[in-house]
Amino acid sequence: MFASSSTSENSNLSINSIGKLPEESSVLVVGAGGIGCELLKSLALCRFGSIGVIDLDTIEVSNLNRQFLFRREHVGQPKASVACDSIRRICPSIHIEPFHGDVLTDPRFDMSFYKQYDLVINALDNVQARQHVNRMCLLCSKPLIDSGSTGYNGQATLIFKGRTQCYDCIEKPKQQRTYAVCTIRNTPSQPIHCIVWAKFLYNQLFGDNEDPNNEDVTPDSDDPENANNELENKTNGHHRVSTRDWIHKEMEEFDPKRIFNKLFFDDIIYLTSMKNLWEKRRQPIPIEYGKACLVKEKNQNGQGDHDESTMPKITDQRIQSISDYVQMFIDSVNDLKQRSDKQREIALTTKEPTFLVWDKNDDADLRFVTASANLRAHIFGINLTSKFDVKSMAGNIIPAVATTNAIVAGITVLQARKILATLPRLSHDHTLTSINHLTNVFISTDRKTGGIIQSIPLEEPNQSCIQCSDLEQPVRVRINMSLFTVSALYERVIRNHLKMNKPDVIIADGSGRILISADDDEDEQMMLKTLDQFKLMNGTILLCEEDYADDTNAALTQNMKIKLMLEHTDTIKDIDDYIIVDGHVIGEIKQSLKRKLPDVDNDDDDDDDNIQHLDDYQNEINIVKKTKRLSTTPNEHNTNTNNNSGAIHMLR
Amino acid sequence: MTTEMRSTDEDIDDQLYNRQRYVLGDDAMKRLRKHHVLIVHAGGLGIEIAKNIVLAGVQSVTLQDTINTSMLDLATQYYLSEEDIGKNRAQCSLEKLRALNDYVKVNVSIQSLSDCSNEYFKQFTCIVLTECNLDEMKKMNELCRINNIIFIMGDVYGVFSRCFVDCGQDPFTVYDKDGEQLKEVFINHVSPEGIVTVAGDERHPFQDGDIVLFRELVGLEHLNQCERKIKDINIHQFSIGDISSLGGEYKRGGIAREVKQQSTMDFKSLNEQIHDPKILTTDGSDYWTKTITGEFWSWLDRADRFTDYVIAFSIYSYNAFCSENLLS
Predict the structure, then answer these.
(1) Could you give the CA distance from residue A601 to residue A508 in angstroms, rounded to a whole number?
(2) How many whole angstroms from its chain centre is CA A244?
(3) In which residue ranges is the amino acid composition biased (Acidic residues) (chain A) (predicted)?
(4) Domain edge (last residue) among B174, B202, B235
(5) What is the rounded distance in angstroms from the CA atom of residue B255 to the CA atom of residue B198?
(6) Which of A186, A463, B101, B162 has its CA 20 to 30 Å from the CA of residue A558?
């Protein structure tokens, strides 16, 4: 109509291709942040027929530097709504709908929601949400473009069920690096080890006492390198007590100077007594409060010192003297103690927690970690870190600029247009060949690889990927998760309705958690808990699996697997009520035969280390693994991942 | 609503710029904020450049355009709408650009380049040309080189694009080639032949030609505070050359840290490059493509001005087009 002449430039691209034009297509954009804003701009300019935008966040000042659809007056408002308003100003005739909610948990975003769109694009900043959208797109057979960026690097990768690798086909390197216990507590060698230690210290002093992930910070005498140490018996036993307990036992009055001396003098002296540790390493040098106050010269280890370019440093980028950090430590400890006491008072009359939670944007929190980490680094002869850098390392900040996001968005839209042009071919050919003219695209400033933009061919799905190799439709059961108990799920739905006997029930959300184990005698308490207490999301899939003897042939066992998808609804008020959606699916459940192996324990894939029982829900802070290996080399996981050398995994 | 905000010399507004500080570094951010940028033509490309530069936080941006909004602009210039048709593109975009960043002064000019004096251009530290013809580009480039103004040219044609950068006739100093943190290792041993063994399981981070500075060595005190160029041997060792002349023997301890090297770059003028361009393609495509692409651009520049239709068409048949016209 009127729009056609202004899109004539764009329509030239589709002259020679069959398939859908943008004007005829609908696209779902998950995320309205850095990439999201640029993406929406480009999609609007292409005149897509209909756009849906999901984002759970509200706008913050730090977003304004690159999320250009937002202005200062919008701070505090939902990103999805404001983004749509801005886009409508750019293109008044466009049909664009905001959804302010969490793509992971919001009941609106069920399978029928996704089915409304031709194409889904991820513009997310975390692995969990990506995995969830990946699963939903696989289930609904929707093409998915996963986009992301960090700093100067970015990507736009394609996910087609059954034809390409899905997001989970290749295991992603962990979001957070994990460090061995002894590295953090005994033998740090890098600034990050000291920063992680400082965050743990924060939790010991001011954090949640009940948190099982709260790691101790005192020297670890169980360090395997410390075996055969005779001196252990000589030193006093205070090191065996956790810092938190020590404070409560030893100090009637909270005394920051005594805490200082315990952490930076007494504990260090104890460490040096573990002689084996220091045979090949530089021994730590303890500092006593009185003496440390006097160290006025700047430590030569500062990272910032190399810069000869004559630009004076901004305050928080400077490395300060040891006496400065001593003062910073004492001051911040006092500030936080006051705050902690106040918090305890508040908690008596409200639902607020009794403890403090570390926040990178809080000045006292940041000063505490900066001071503690640098004092420890000084002791071990490690580089000091400016407050600015501590914030990024301790706060897991992802660096971002507008330009990279603009490039990623541009490439993503080109990918989208190619997919739309390809859609008709997909119904005839279900293999990779139907789309092998498409590629994954990576943006990287690594010039050695021959270009800033790399086009990498698509790859076949991983045959043993749990998410996409099992392509059966799940049985959808609709319940009220805040009323429905585990027991009701097991007895009424799984055993009674689906006619399974005593299967294992595994949560297929990438964590590998077991909800119900057929072998264990589940305690009554757990079975009576409602499903929402297990951090199950709307759309979570449970894998119910069991082997049972074949009636006809004693040497064979039947393996039965049913995928159960939980959908939450508030409209159900009865605690026993459930609705099976699409009942006919149950008839199509595949059953496979397995040869029974005599005398062999079939449980050898039960790796206890990987099973997390539902009580330990993973904390966002670096988890210190209980194994005693030295920290892994940074290059290790590069050799394990696939050849997509540009693959970006953690992105905002 | 926008009051002019002047940041102090000392501090960068961390609340706003935090994520960008971690990408560019504060050094770059401080230099950035001293720049006065001129962007010529407010088409799709010009506005995208303007948007990114204003967000980044320079001192001022001047958007200069003589052309009025047409229907074609609406496809790519997102700050223009139907009611702007017939009006000057830069003027119509001004308010929206200003709203992007309170710290940046945004101006508009409707003069043509040829009507502006050399003095006018000297107020800028960086000039970006879009949608200009070759003569305009060459003239501007010469002016920039003489006055040490950074010159950037960019153009987009359908899915093709090009960009040219000239940072001036004086050698351009690179203080930090990768912007990464200084690499540093603990030392396990130093042999008299100068073979350094690093501590721990990790691969040492240094490469051939890196320069390292030593400290805290016990036994080899003469090597402390010395800079040495290294040669990579294996993942745990590198060589710094014979050190027996320094005296002493390694006992224990020691830390080696990278010393960043400055380097300089020389930029060629547009005039020099255009006849024999050194082409860097963004996707690393091969020599054959580079040759054709170079010829294609030369052909474009020989033409006086081209419509977007011609370019769009030729994207699909440029092989035939080129082979017919270029080789004749």
Answers:
(1) 24
(2) 29
(3) 211-225
(4) B174
(5) 9
(6) A463
**Cα–Cα distance for residue pair A11/B75, rounded to 1 Å:** 11
Amino acid sitting at position A590: K
Residue A544 appears among annotated catalytic residues:
no
ipTM over the 0.85 cut-off: no
Domain tally, chain B: 3
Mean pLDDT of chain A: 78
The CA-atom distances, in angstroms, between B123 and each of A608, B37, B108, B109, B127 are 69, 9, 14, 14, 10
A390 and A408, same structural domain? no
Among the listed residues A182, A194, A293, A544, the single catalytic one is A182
* A185 alpha-carbon distance from chain centroid: 25
Q: What is the mean pLDDT of residues A527-534?
A: 84
Q: Which domain holds residue B314?
A: 284-325
Q: Per DSSP, what are the bridge partners of residue B64?
A: B40, B109
In this structure, the answer to whether residues A481 and A574 fall within a common structural domain is yes
Say yes or no: A165 and A189 in one domain: no
* Cβ atoms within 10 Å, residue B310: 13
Other CB atoms closer than 10 Å to residue B277's CB: what's the count? Answer: 18
Position A539 scores a pLDDT of 79
Q: What is the pLDDT of residues B196-237, one digit of tens each?
A: 999 877 788 888 888 999 988 888 888 999 899 999 998 899
| Residues facing residue B189 across a β-bridge | B197
Q: Which of residues 64-83 of A touch B (CB under 8 A)?
A: 64-66, 68, 71-73
Query: What does pTM read for this prediction?
Result: 0.71
Residue A651 resides in a domain: no
Contacts of A66 in chain B (CB under 8 A): 19-20, 55
pLDDT tens track for B67-82: 999 998 998 999 999 9
Q: Domain limits at A422? A: 11-174+399-457
Taking CA–CA distances from B310, the nearest residue in chain A reads A9
